[in-house]
Amino acid sequence: MDPWHKFRRIFYSVGIPPTIWLIAFFLVPLGLIWIFSFGEKVGVVGIDITWTLDNYVRSFNPDILTIFAKSLWLAAVATFICLVIGLPVALGIVYAPNKWKGLLLLGIMLPFWTNLLIRTYALIAVLRTRGYVNFTLEWLDGAARWFLELFGMGGIALAILGERFQALELLYNDNAVILGLVYVHLPFMVLPLYAALERLDRSYLEASLDLGAGHLRTLWNVVVPLALPGIISGLIITFIPALGSFLTPDLLGGPDSAMIATIIERQFKSANDWPFGSALSFLLMYITFGALAIRALMARRRGGDGMGG
Amino acid sequence: MAKRKGLFGRDPAGPLDYLRKWPLLTVMIATFVFLYVPLLTLMAFSFNDSRRNIVWRGFTTEYYGKLFNNTDLMIAFGNSLTIALFSTFFSLILGAMVAILLWRFRFPMKPFYEGTMALPIVIPEICMGVAMLAFFARIGWPNDLVWPISLANITIAHISFTFPFVAVIVRARLAGFNREQEEACRDLGAGDWEVYRDVIIPHMKPGLVAGGLLAFTLSLDDFVITFFTSGPETVTFPVKVYSMVRFSVTPEVNAASTVLIVITVFLTAIAMWLQNKGAEKK
Q1: Contact criterion met (CB below 8 Å) for A161 and A144
Q2: What is the pTM of this model?
């Protein structure tokens, strides 16, 4: 690496255009809503910058706090489910035969490249009342009735299965949102876990198994502690985008499954209260930065430990 | 696990051959079913000859024909492609500059600069979307421009979030550059610019292609940021699909989605392949 002043001309010519772009079309817009967040709504479109903290205080009223808590909860549950699914999947890929490894990783990545909107839409098509899941259930229900009738147990069928098939309401509730978040964010979890497990010295696992520990015990006492930095990294990388999701709660959620992004969108589009929306955006960003800081701190502590050992 | 040895004459499963143990195999298969079944059914049923599109009634490409005759959707698709092309071009230039800057130079406050450059990647999309909405409204961006120029605000927003991604990819490619090549070039009499033109930029090429394809797919796929910057006259493909999805599940939406899935998967596959080829050469 060269010190910048040795090649001033090149330094300036590669440095100035992107810096100006970042300032003009990223930092200034962000700065603008940061200033808006201290403003007051005047009339229909006017915003008066009065440096009031009112918008932030309003964010702590019970209604909004409930939505924040709910968002954190939905994102946390989805992240945890991603971990529970992602850990065995990553473990399976790491210890798969070499010729399969690339293919399996590609298999996890491929849905990740398809459009978020389309993946969410695909879930709607599967889960809606007239969707494939309910269609399959109805068919199974029909088959079970027919089977029980065959043995003259129509009464039992009626008792267990009810008068007629009731389609399950799988969409437009919190569970659908969690399922959608897991569906969309699973690769975020699998990839860091894979990277962490790949680096793991497999002789530790073999030693544990040789010494008589079962697979679950090895997983819990050897794999998890050794891969902990990767697990934490995966948790944070999955949690951040899950928390800021807009499309998933918007398309899969019910009226009461609004997440932070939903109310931000509402302030900017229908409610037209930009200062409040700006304050909410910044609160969401502060939470994101907090999560990133935890991750950086963990990474640094790990570096320190490594040097000490 | 010794019990398994020699069973059916297969190699014994090693203690860490997790894929050959049923609990893990079950989770793995279930995960892939979960990931793929919704997308594959969506794609398959875009060819289904039935409006109720739940029972298979035979193969048809009728809905693709309808798609191409749907003027709104085609205009939106044209808008998306135009925006993606322009934003790819500019984010390649800007991203390559950032990559060279961070790879080549030591300068004061570099960690801070790097962190700021990564912000568009890490901040929630919704925050960037509303920031862009507020920004263009505040500077009084006109809404009545003629066609390609009317897409400029969406394009600007897209460049802002794609060029840091390009920078990351190109920088990774530059990390494998052998400085001795540059020294040889200088010994042979090249000046600063010749070194870039004849040695460094050719070395960056696979990274630029991969970064460009990534920028293109990111732009083509983006919904949230576009949703906040697009006006009634400048609808993009994902924004149009969103309004159709809100309305209902129809074979047309399935067909439109299938087209977009095929395009993005195809482009990303090329990008991956090029990146691997570059890595092998090294």
Answers
A1: yes
A2: 0.87
